[in-house]
Amino acid sequence: MRHLGYRGRVQPPPDTADVIVEGAMRALARHGTSRVSMTDICREARVSRGTLYRYFSNREDVLDAVNRRIASTMRSSFDEAIAADPRPEARLRVVLHAMIGFPQQFPHMTRLIEHEPSSALAFLSREMPRLVTTLTEYLEPIFETAPPVVDGLLSPEQLSEIFQRLITSTFLIPTPGSERLDERISDMWDSFMTTTRPPKQVRARSTARPRISA
Amino acid sequence: MSAVSTVEAILEGAARALGHRGVQKLSMSDICDEAGVSRGTLYRYFKSKDDVLEALSQHVLESMAVIIQEAVDERPALEDRLRVVLTAMMSFTDRLPYTMALVQTEPAFSLAFFRRSMASYRVILERFLSPVLADSAPVRSGVVTIGDLCELFERVVLSAYVIRDGDAGSVPDLLADMWGALVAHGPPQATATA
Question: Could you give the ipTM of this predicted complex?
Answer without folding.
Answer: 0.90
